[in-house]
Amino acid sequence: MYGPSAWKEIVAIEAQQRKEQRELVYAKKEAIDNLINGIIITIIVGISLLITGGTIYFVGHQQGKW
User: Fold this and answer.
1) 7 with 13: CB under 8 angstroms?
2) Where are the alpha helices (DSSP H) in 1-66?
3) pTM, two decimal places
4) What phi, psi does 39 have (nearest 5°)?
5) Do 63 and 55 form a contact (C-beta atoms < 8 A)?
6) Tens digits of per-residue pLDDT, 13-51?
7) d(Cα 64, Cα 1) in Å, to the nearest integer?
């Protein structure tokens, strides 16, 4: 009823929607990965600061400075 050009348009629209869906899924996975990496880095930095602070405190305590 609409001709061959309408079918080509429908196929093009479907292809565009699939492409957009793939991009959205990829962006969501990338955002989740970035969040997880940020949390891990924050934990590592926090633990490092605790270890460094604890070491400084105990060394100072052993030397009688605290």
Assistant:
1) no
2) 4-62
3) 0.68
4) -65, -45
5) no
6) 999 999 999 999 999 999 999 999 999 999 999 999 999
7) 94
